[in-house]
Hints:
The chain is of the alpha+beta class. Helices cover 26% and strands 23% of the residues.
Amino acid sequence: xxxxxxxxxxxxxxxxxxxxxxxxxxxxxxxxxxxxxxxxxxxxxxxxxxxxxxxxxxxxxxxxxxxxxxxxxxxxxxxxxxxxxxxxxxxxxxxxxxxxxxxxxxxxxxxxxxxxxxxxxxxxxxxxxxxxxxxxxxxxxxxxxxxxxxxxxxxxxxxxxxxxxxxxxxxxxxxxxxxxxxxxxxxxxxxxxxxxxxxxxxxxxxxxxxxxxxxxxxxxxxxxxxxxxxxxxxxxxxxxxxxxxxxxxxxxxxxxxxxxxxxxx
DNA sequence: CCAACGTCCTGCGTGC
DNA sequence: TGCACGCAGGACGTTG
Length: 265
């Protein structure tokens, strides 16, 4: 499940390959992946820039067109210099003048939007954790009136944009905060710890993203080096790395949460 | 406004 | 062995 570090890593690697290149052809194998607009409209366009907004990827074209992509659970972009060996589950092919960009998505929950005005595929997008404005005070401001569990608040993209289910558990363990705590009950010390854990974990994961995705084999996040950095996610029953007590798993809002009931209060 | 829940989708692991 | 079932979860629409 690509979260901020994975999506940012993908953007950075796509940038070198496709910026300045022209779209020569399009093939859509699964039409419902295209959520808005017609992908064929970008044929003949040159790609000016690639950037990330939360977990969305934005491709900016030279003729006022934009293509957004969201990878959801299993989406990924693969680069091929030629199409001699096509991987499975490729839903969209975007042929450029120097190779081919493949959108691969096993569970097909992801989507692509093609727009020409100021339309964005998101409703409300919260602050980016790697943005300079993401201060403890800013986080406190966004959490102080939320009575939902802090774990759920971290997953709310309209509050903070980019954290997914894996890093939500990791961040709370790092900050020593219990996942079921109401977001509004965090004091400024705890909020500061949480803010620092978010920045630290996302940054370090991003830093190791380069090695994870070398050869442009971008995976769904479970296959990469990030797996080795995880401290609690999917570690139920294993000893906590701080206190050795067993990591527990609970379900919050139909999603798994992993935590240490001793270290996290 | 907030909060909770259903929906979409397929590969894989489990149990009988 | 084969099959049915449940689980994984991101974002949005609907409902309360």
